[in-house]
Amino acid sequence: MNTRGCLAANDWICGEYLRSRAQELTDATIQHVWITAISVAIGLLVAFPLALLARSRPSFAGPVLGLTTLLYTIPSLAMFSLLLPLFGLSAGLVITGLVLYSLTILVRNIIAGLESVPEEAREAARGMGYGPGRLLWEVELPLALPALMAGLRIATVSTIALTTVGSIVGRGGLGNLIEDALPSFFKAQVLTASVLCVLLAVVADLLLLGVQRLLTPWTRIRATRTPRRKAPGAGAAGPVDAAKAVS
């Protein structure tokens, strides 16, 4: 079978489809990336103060975590239907829904990261004259970055997958191509859009992992240090040293 006959034969893998629909695929991919990036960025901006509130006031922790978890359990179609009167058939509808879904992952990981900071690191920073704001930004957040970035990676990959649901209002990026192809079972379009979604998730995860490694160089230094002998009572560089290093 020749290459140009794959469209007529409705093959799953079709080079002619890629050539003839290159612009359509590019536009859908750009829309997918744009919606995902905006949703995750806004989700992070909303989740951060919520996590700080939950940590500073334990009485708010239960309601905040409970509400974000409840939002995550709402089916996507129901969520978009509830938001429809407020946003109409717009990109704002999809972005708001995706932001709400990302909150439970981001809030929990930010709290977990901040709570994982050893008290010794905080005491060392306070002993060097750090106030609450400087303590948060220069000691606690850097030490909490691994957990925070792990949550950001999960939220990003999840958002890439959920963005496809936005196709019900024509704002689903690659999901639009999948939905358009399903009634006629256009195999090449379904497979290509699905593969691109997977590739986007993999690339985004690897990029964020690279950012995490750049922002936390001390974790690589510790991992590569494998002392041959450890003197009695000696230990690895602790959180206090990390606190001093980032000050």
Can you put this structure into words, describing what you see?
The protein has about 250 residues and is an all-alpha fold. Helix content is about 80%, strand content about 0%. The protein contains 12 helices and no strands. The chain has helices spanning about 5-10, 15-20, 20-55, 60-75, 75-85, 90-115, 120-125, 130-165, 175-180, 185-215, 215-225, 240-245. It is elongated. Mean pLDDT is about 80; it is low at about 230-245.
Brief summary:
The chain is mainly alpha-helical and 247 residues long.
The largest sheet is:
none
Note the gap between the termini: 66 Å
Helical element count?
12
Rg, Å, rounded: 23 Å
Taken from the alpha-carbon principal axes, the silhouette is elongated
Mean pLDDT: 82
β-strand percent reads under 5%
| Global structural class | mainly alpha
Q: Report helical residue fraction.
A: over 70%
Q: What would you call the quaternary organization?
A: single chain
Written as H for each helix and E for each strand, in order along the chain, the element string is: HHHHHHHHHHHH
Q: Provide the low-confidence segments as ranges.
A: 230-247
- Find the count of extended strands (DSSP E, 2+ residues): 0
